[in-house]
Design a protein that fits this description.
Elements: E1 6-7, H1 9-19, E2 28-31, H2 38-46, E3 54-58, E4 79-81, E5 101-105, H3 110-127, E6 130-134, H4 137-143, H5 149-163, E7 165-171, E8 185-188, H6 194-203, H7 209-216, E9 224-227, E10 236-238
Parallel strand pairs: 1-10, 2-7, 2-8, 3-5, 3-6, 4-5, 6-7
Antiparallel strand pairs: 8-9, 9-10
Length: 242
């Protein structure tokens, strides 16, 4: 199998911190199955941008322990809301470290949730200047196809540089997922199944049986990382669990 050079995760995050700028290198694409550590990685990335306005789109209608109450502070990772208003965060009415973070959660009413998600992405497109976290892009784009959320997500990603907007796009598989070719930062984690491993290799610009086997061997909470910035060393494998 091809050998991925090892790199401590903190060094990789240092590189991301220097390179991640919405007007030059905006988007992250994160591929990994349930349990791979996607949400944990997203939290590490958000810690690099504590002053940013953040919208987390969480399509799960049930309580999500990955984002919910942290030691008595339920808004640590964004105030849970069912609608996003224009100018969200301008009064520091949200959660997170400075009141700028919001978590748009699904409800059992799928129609109402789809409309709320579409409206929130419209707000981001109109205003820019935000980090949008899509915690399960496959679910968002597949389950709410009637609201054309795949097109809305891609439109937000296209905004990117001109709107000072970044998207952290996390998914278990690449079907139904728009905008994946726009990732300036690519993270491939623990995957399940041949198609996901092939997709992970393709995200890194690789193909062939050996690379699929390499992707299949990535353990949980480790990442094959690649970016498109100057000095890019090629894919590396993070060596520390988050």
């Amino acid at each position: 199998m091809p050998h991925l050079p090892a790199a401590p995760l903190d060094r990789v995050l240092d590189r991301v911190d220097r390179a991640w700028q919405p007007r030059r290198a905006a988007h992250h694409v994160i591929l990994g199955q349930t349990g791979a550590g996607k949400t944990t990685l997203i939290k590490s990335l958000l810690r690099l941008r504590l002053d940013a306005r953040v919208l987390i789109i969480d399509p799960k209608p049930a309580p999500d322990p990955a984002w919910d109450d942290v030691a008595g502070y339920p808004d640590t990772w964004g105030t849970p809301v069912q609608h996003i208003a224009a100018g969200f965060g301008s009064d520091r009415e949200g959660g997170g470290p400075h009141g700028y973070w919001f978590r748009l959660v699904a409800t059992p009413d799928r129609e109402a949730t789809g409309a709320a998600l579409a409206a929130a992405l419209d707000v981001v497109r109109a205003e820019g200047h935000a980090i949008v976290v899509i915690d399960d892009a496959r679910e968002v784009c597949r389950a709410y196809r009637a609201h054309k959320l795949d097109q809305a997500v891609e439109s937000v990603m296209n905004l990117g540089r001109s709107g000072a907007t970044s998207v952290l796009l996390a998914t278990q598989e690449l079907g139904y997922v728009p905008g994946r070719a726009q990732g300036a930062f690519t993270w491939v984690g623990h995957t399940q199944g041949l198609d996901a491993a092939k997709g992970g290799a393709a995200l890194l610009g690789k193909a062939g049986k050996a690379w699929v086997e390499t992707m299949s061997a990535i353990p949980p909470y480790h990442w094959a990382y690649l970016d498109n910035r100057p000095g890019n060393p090629g894919p590396v494998l993070t060596t520390e669990s988050l």
